[in-house]
Amino acid sequence: MTYRVMAVIALLGSASTAQAGAIDRTGQPITALFESGRYAEFSLGTVSPDTSGVGVQATPGARSGDMTDSFLSFGAAYKADLTDQISYAIIYDQPFGADVAYPVGTGYFAQGATATFDSNALTGLMRFEMPSNFSVHGGIRVQTIEASALIPFVTSGPGPGITVPGAPYSVKGDRDTGVGYVAGVAFEKPEIALRVSLTYNSKIKYDVNTTENSVIGQNVRSSTHVETPQSLNLEFQTGIAADTLLFGGVRWTDWSSFEIAPAQYAALTGGSKLLSYNDDIYTYSLGVGRRITEAWAVAASVAYEKQVGGYASNLGPTDGQKSIALAATYTRDNMKITTGIRYVDIGDAQTRAGAAAPAARFAGNDAIAVGVKVGFNF
Question: Rounded to whole angstroms, how far apart are CA atoms 193 and 21?
């Protein structure tokens, strides 16, 4: 009975997730680990953001046009029991990402700028159930990242010998692989469908082989240190009435320690980072799920991220968000099909470009995300 409702809850936190704070995309879910028996799932989501701004001190009044491309997100998981107390799961997701493309011909100072950040993660987890309804879980995460950017408005630098405008700045970071770990604890009380879990995701370090092109030099190779951030997920669910679950959670992500700072970009901009964030981000969610027939269950949730203020990056001009999501699950025999939709009200932000502060203001932006998940118990 409750597993059908839980399937809807899982989708609201994964396949239908819109782009969250910074470049967070999935929230690094581990819900498959708590499924009953042997289980496999596949999920696909599509997110369509609409993010645009207006120049203030840089190209005053010029509109940027929509600078965020739509993107797809794929996930998969397999879970099985080794004994009555020990189980394992293998989970694939794409936890972090960015797709930026400012339109050309707008007169906006960042026109033609592009950036991508792609990641793929494979996580292997073990879970040991102890007496008194407690369990511990943990494992290893192997993750790859790669990134690239073209910043046409960075064509000169502040230092001697590089003050004459020249070639626009571009950078390509080769794919690199890093390893981190996951550790957590959970408490369950099945008779009331209660589960509370706390999961820590470690940071993962990389030394990315980087190729930069600018007025300083062409095809200059170097190594850029990048760390995807550590995070902590607190999630809960509990029955509040027959066939009804309350669920929610808090996710903390250490974005204030994240930066991408290639050598030439730092030299050209007086030490600025290509991408960084001023503060950590907390994401809060709360929802309710209900089974309405033997075959159907539905759920709704809201999520919130506080605005932190300051200046956002021109490659990610957002600050905070509010969202609402709806999902439904259809169950037939050993198969569950869940679909969901999420609307995101993207928080207003302002950016800077060199001495121009604010360079632009971004307001009235939003995103729509749609996802589907198919799960099998066997």
Answer: 30
Alpha-carbon gap, residue 223 to 207, rounded angstroms: 6
Q: What is the DSSP string of 339-353?
A: EEEEEEEEPPEEEEE
Per residue in 82-120, pLDDT (tens digit) is: 999 999 999 999 999 999 999 999 999 999 999 999 999
Query: What is 36-56 written as a DSSP string?
Result: SSSEEEEEEEEEEEE--EEES
User: Rounded to a whole number, what is the largest CA-CA distance in the chain?
Assistant: 73
Unique residue bearing structure tokens 């632009």: 360
Query: What range defines the domain where residue 248 resides?
Result: 2-377
Tell me if 59 sits within 8 A of 364, measured CB to CB: no
Report the C-alpha gap between 69 and 86 in whole angstroms: 42
Cα–Cα distance measured from residue 221 to residue 332, given in angstroms and rounded to the nearest whole number: 55
Q: How far apart are CA 313 and CA 306, in angstroms?
A: 17
Contact 264, 223 (CB under 8 A): no
How many domains does the chain fold into?
A: 1
| Beta partners for residue 84, in sequence order | none
Q: What is the pLDDT of residues 332-376, one digit of tens each?
A: 999 999 999 999 999 999 999 888 889 999 999 999 999 999 999
CB 125 within 8 A of CB 61: no
Strand partners, 234: 198, 250
CATH of the domain at 154: 2.40.160.60
The pLDDT tens digits of the residues spanning 237-252 come to 999 998 899 999 999 9
